[in-house]
């Protein structure tokens, strides 16, 4: 028996950082996906993990995966009390550890044993560039095990589990990434408290086309970038709150622009929003130059996710009347870009079950 399950990547259509502070986010699933297959094979009670993203193959046991997951949660609990990112960062310095933690957490949640299977992971989602790669992997892993053990693909349960796993990768995530990846579509999301996260699926008759430009993989983790903004917030609360409030206002204006499919209005709002994001100190000079060049071509550019301070800032969401010139610029500048479907389906069964 073989089953295959997939989960999409995601982008923030406007700046993401304020969602950590109870402000809204506009998130969208995209047509880049992670695929996890589980195939039965006699392996003397072992599990083979074939990670084609990392070009790694590893043989483990269910007990080892569960031990890895339990240790990860102990480390996260220390982080929660101390806010020291060092141990949390070292925990997933090897990206394969995140895969094992996701598998172990799901087995713990399902109270199931697992053996004599090959788990294969493939993905189109760029790693470490704010495309929702970790949440996409975690969601596909969780959903694949739910499917393998013939459980309903309960998105509420899977979402809660993926959020728990995402905390290992990002420390204190908002929960927005995992929600849009599990449910799919275009979401208005707000984290009210740790236990209350509100979201609504948005559906408009018409929507603009977007281009995603990869400004380069950030040197910093999302957790580090979130910590950088937190430090600013604690040292200059009034300054930060003023920026957050203005960015929330931009989001609401952008939402109205989306509803009307008013491209010019969305480009105008995006240009303002990205300047306020830069005031938080999370956008690198390299990325600012790319944004400036794209704006000269008439485009509006948003920075999706945690951004990056030293080199690249990950995914950029580009709105433009003329995408031809934008693409020509990207090709000339050797920037990776994606023309993908937006508002795609969330976790889904591809084969088997």
Structural features, described:
This protein is α+β, with helices and mostly antiparallel strands and 353 residues long. Helices cover 46% and strands 21% of the residues. The strands form two sheets. Strands 1, 2, 3, 4, 5, 6, 7 and 12 form an eight-stranded mixed beta sheet that branches. The N and C termini lie close together (9 Å). The model has no long low-confidence stretch (mean pLDDT 93).
Features:
353 residues; alpha+beta; four-stranded antiparallel sheet; globular
- The SSE order reads EEEEHHHEHHHEEEHHHHEEHEE
Unreliable segments (pLDDT under 50, ≥5 consecutive)?
none
Major sheet description: 8 strands, mixed
Helix content: 40-55%
Ends apart, CA distance between termini: 9 Å
What percent strand?
15-25%
Rough outline: globular
Number of strands: 12
Mean pLDDT: 93
| Strand-pairing-aware structural class | alpha+beta
Count of separate DSSP helical elements: 11
Kindly provide the radius of gyration, computed on alpha-carbon positions and rounded to a whole number of angstroms.
20 Å
In short:
With 353 residues, the chain is α+β, with helices and mostly antiparallel strands.
Topology:
Layout: E1 2-12, E2 24-40, E3 47-51, E4 56-60, H1 62-82, H2 85-91, H3 95-110, E5 117-123, H4 133-148, H5 155-170, H6 176-183, E6 186-191, E7 197-201, E8 211-214, H7 222-235, H8 237-260, H9 263-279, H10 285-296, E9 300-303, E10 315-319, H11 323-333, E11 337-338, E12 348-351
Parallel strand pairs: 3-5
Antiparallel strand pairs: 1-2, 1-12, 2-5, 2-6, 3-4, 6-7, 8-10, 8-11, 9-10
Helix pairs in contact: 1-2, 1-3, 3-4, 3-5, 4-5, 5-6, 7-8, 8-9
């Amino acid at each position: 028996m073989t089953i295959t399950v997939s989960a999409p990547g995601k982008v923030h259509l406007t700046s993401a950082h304020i969602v950590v502070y109870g402000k809204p986010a506009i998130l969208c699933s995209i047509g880049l996906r992670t695929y996890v297959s589980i195939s039965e094979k006699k392996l003397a009670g072992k599990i083979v993990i074939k990670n084609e993203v990392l070009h790694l193959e590893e043989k483990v046991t269910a007990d080892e995966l569960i031990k890895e997951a339990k240790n990860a949660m102990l480390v996260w609990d220390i982080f929660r009390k101390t806010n020291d990112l060092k141990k949390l960062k070292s925990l997933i310095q090897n990206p394969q550890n995140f895969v094992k933690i996701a598998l172990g957490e799901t087995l713990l949640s399902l109270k199931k044993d697992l053996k004599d299977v090959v788990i294969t992971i493939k993905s189109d989602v760029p790693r470490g560039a704010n495309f929702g790669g970790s949440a996409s992997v975690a969601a596909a892993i969780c959903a694949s095990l739910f499917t393998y053990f013939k459980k309903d693909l309960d998105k509420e349960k899977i979402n809660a589990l993926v959020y728990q796993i995402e905390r290992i990768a990002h420390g204190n995530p908002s929960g927005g990434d995992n929600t849009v990846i599990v449910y799919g579509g275009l979401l208005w999301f707000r984290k009210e408290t740790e236990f209350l996260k509100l979201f609504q699926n948005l559906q408009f008759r018409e929507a603009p086309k977007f281009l995603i430009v990869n400004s380069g993989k950030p040197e910093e983790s999302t957790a580090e970038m979130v910590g950088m903004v937190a430090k600013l917030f604690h040292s200059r609360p009034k300054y930060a709150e003023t920026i957050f409030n203005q960015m929330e206002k931009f989001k609401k204006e952008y939402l109205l622009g989306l509803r009307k499919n008013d491209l010019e209005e969305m480009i105008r709002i995006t240009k303002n929003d990205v300047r306020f994001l830069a005031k938080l100190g999370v956008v690198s000079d390299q990325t600012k130059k790319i944004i400036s060049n794209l704006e000269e071509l008439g485009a509006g550019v948003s920075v999706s996710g945690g951004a990056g301070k030293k080199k690249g800032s990950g995914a950029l969401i580009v709105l433009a009347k003329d995408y031809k010139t934008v693409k020509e610029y990207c090709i000339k500048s050797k920037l990776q870009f994606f023309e993908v479907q937006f508002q795609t389906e969330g976790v889904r069964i591809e084969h088997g079950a």
